[in-house]
């Protein structure tokens, strides 16, 4: 009796969890076990069921079948508050805090301390400060609405909220995908620290090298089912990809393009600071930099989405971008894939096929042609096959029913479908799985080279994924504090060099000494 081994209960146990949406089995009998003191990876292709599983865990999605336990005690949440009450904190990629409340209020939300009839602001600040200090996040301001904080700071507030409520299970939903490299590194270290403190950490990510680095075990989902489970040391990212896809995937390797003489875009700062950026027909140019360096602002200024007297634009595609803004793409001119697909990229309530073919529909309704329903379906199906869009059984279903990564594939496909001369891609593969990433790179490279006898296009890519820029681009410039350095051949650069330049206190000046 005294010799009996005590098996500690797993932090989290799920058995046979299922969730159907009409004919789609988002989850089909999924099992998951996560221990205290481990970081557990959860990976799978776009549409594999990861977000649905997190929704079930957080109490936001009601499963059709299955059972769950937290620390050995049955868990059947009726809503998101139940998770936190049972010590489970979910850190979402999108803002899930109350944006108009500040960090101190968000950390104590649901458990606001009172002194008599009044809120005890001093106690709230003490609690928030203590939790943020534990995270080494003294730089997060307490008195600012969290809607105005950076993505990285908001995540820290969410983790602080979990810590303050005594959470022992932390679930991270693609936490590094909207962060720059330094913030992503900080978050990975934080997850490791939570593990050292004995917490259980679930890490959902498409960044497989990060998964390989920090995870003790990894559960792989495919088509809503368990596909594999790996222990640390038993897998590498190639093995993960094979388990996710159920087949070998061809890696993307680009033969560098040949830039033609024609300048499609020439962007320079009106105050003469830094270098000008030129995109010629036939080439892919990348812009690296930290989050907040001003890269997105450059694209938005070009499109006239924001009044910005800092930038002057010239070149063939410079005169008409605004006219082609509707639907984010158009014939001739330039087209943009926005980094904010939910608000600016897609019409979430409109059908999948309309979202895909919007540029053509736009022209059709303007009297430049007519798109028959059969034609719409054919074009949409072609893209769905080319990019492996999962879950698009019914092309007339609203696009919000697709998983996040599959929505992103549609946003990119739509731009590829338009015949813009200049493509501007802002974080084009955020949330996209490895297989589809390679497919998107291949299609973009083909467009730059001139496919099926079409004229070569020019491409400008903004990305926080340095590997992506190095794989895809002919030349890469780094932006620091709104000022661009010189675009240099990608072959002469590596991630380290780009990161060094991006984190330099001052940008390189026009005339090196
Ligand atoms: N509200 C919904 N209505 C219909 N289908 C849905 C709904 N939510 C999810 N689905 C479907 O369930 C499947 C699983 O989606 P889920 O979002 O869980 O995938 P995921 O693994 O998180 O993908 P991603 O990596 O792209 O975020 C997909 O086929 C998706 O289209």
Distance between the termini: 79 Å
The named CATH superfamily of the largest domain: P-loop containing nucleotide triphosphate hydrolases
CATH architecture annotation name of the largest domain: 3-Layer(aba) Sandwich
Mean pLDDT: 85
Number of helices: 17
Can you describe this structure in just a few lines?
The protein has 17 helices and 22 strands.
What is the strand and helix layout of this fold?
Elements: E1 12-21, E2 24-34, E3 38-43, H1 50-58, E4 65-70, E5 73-74, H2 80-85, E6 88-91, H3 103-107, E7 114-115, E8 118-119, H4 121-134, H5 151-164, E9 169-173, H6 181-196, E10 200-204, H7 208-214, E11 217-222, E12 225-231, H8 237-245, E13 263-269, E14 277-280, E15 284-289, H9 295-302, E16 311-314, E17 334-337, H10 341-345, H11 352-356, H12 358-365, H13 373-387, H14 404-417, E18 422-426, H15 434-449, E19 458-462, H16 466-472, E20 475-480, E21 483-484, E22 488-489, H17 495-502
Parallel strand pairs: 3-10, 3-11, 6-9, 9-10, 15-19, 15-20, 17-18, 18-19
Antiparallel strand pairs: 1-2, 1-4, 4-5, 7-8, 11-12, 13-14, 13-16, 20-21, 20-22
This protein binds adenosine-5'-triphosphate.
Structure characterization notes:
The chain is an alpha/beta fold. It has two domains: 234 residues, Rossmann fold, CATH 3.40.50.300; 188 residues, 3-Layer(aba) Sandwich (Rossmann fold), CATH 3.40.50.300. The protein has 17 helices and 22 strands. The strands form five sheets. Strands 15, 17, 18, 19, 20, 21 and 22 form a seven-stranded mixed beta sheet that branches. The termini are far apart. Bound molecules: adenosine-5'-triphosphate. The site of adenosine-5'-triphosphate has 20 residues, from β2, α1 and α14.
């Amino acid at each position: 009796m005294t010799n009996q081994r005590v098996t500690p209960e797993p932090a989290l146990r799920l058995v046979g969890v299922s969730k159907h949406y009409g004919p789609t089995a988002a989850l089909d009998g999924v099992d998951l076990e996560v221990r205290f003191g481990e970081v557990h990876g959860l990976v799978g292709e776009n549409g594999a069921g990861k977000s649905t599983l997190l929704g079930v865990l957080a109490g936001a999605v009601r499963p059709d079948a299955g059972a769950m336990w937290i620390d050995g005690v049955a868990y059947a949440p009726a809503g998101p508050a139940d998770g936190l009450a049972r010590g489970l904190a979910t850190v979402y990629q999108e803002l899930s805090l109350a944006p108009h409340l500040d960090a101190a209020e968000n950390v104590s939300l649901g458990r606001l301390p009172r002194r008599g009839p009044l809120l005890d602001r001093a106690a709230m600040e003490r609690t928030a400060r203590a939790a943020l200090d534990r995270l080494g996040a003294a730089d997060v301001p307490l008195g600012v609405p969290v809607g105005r904080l950076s993505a990285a700071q908001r995540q820290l507030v969410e983790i602080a909220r979990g810590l303050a409520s005594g959470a022992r299970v932390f679930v991270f939903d693609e936490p590094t995908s909207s962060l720059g490299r330094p913030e992503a590194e900080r978050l990975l270290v934080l997850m490791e620290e939570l593990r050292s403190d004995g917490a259980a950490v679930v890490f959902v990510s498409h960044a497989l090298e990060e998964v390989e680095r920090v995870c003790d075990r990894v559960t792989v989902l495919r088509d809503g089912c368990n596909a594999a489970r790996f222990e640390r040391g038993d897998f590498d990212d190639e093995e993960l990809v094979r388990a996710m896809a159920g087949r070998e995937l061809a890696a993307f390797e680009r033969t560098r393009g040949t830039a033609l003489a024609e300048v499609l875009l020439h962007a320079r700062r009106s105050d003469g600071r830094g270098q000008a950026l030129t995109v010629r027909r036939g080439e892919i140019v990348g812009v690296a930099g930290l989050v907040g360096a001003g890269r997105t602002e450059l694209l938005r200024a070009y499109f006239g989405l924001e009044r910005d007297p800092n930038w002057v634009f010239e070149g063939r595609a410079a005169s008409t971008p605004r006219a082609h803004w509707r639907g984010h793409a158009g014939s001739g001119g330039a087209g943009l894939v926005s980094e904010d697909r939910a608000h600016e990229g897609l019409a979430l309530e409109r059908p999948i096929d309309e979202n895909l073919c919007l540029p053509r529909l736009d022209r059709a309704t303007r009297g430049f042609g007519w798109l028959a329903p059969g034609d719409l379906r054919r074009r949409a199906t072609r893209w769905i096959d080319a990019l492996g869009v999962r879950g698009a059984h019914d092309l007339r279903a609203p696009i919000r029913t697709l998983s996040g990564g599959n929505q992103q594939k549609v946003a990119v496909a739509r731009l590829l479908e338009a015949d813009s001369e200049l493509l501007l891609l802002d974080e084009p593969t955020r949330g996209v799985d490895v297989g589809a990433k390679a497919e998107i790179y291949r299609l973009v490279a083909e467009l730059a080279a001139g496919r099926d006898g079409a004229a070569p296009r020019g491409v400008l890519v903004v990305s926080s994924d340095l590997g992506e820029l190095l794989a895809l681009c002919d030349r890469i410039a780094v932006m620091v504090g709104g000022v661009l350095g010189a675009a240099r051949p990608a072959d002469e650069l590596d991630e380290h060099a780009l990161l060094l330049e991006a984190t330099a206190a001052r940008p390189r000046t026009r005339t090196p000494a």
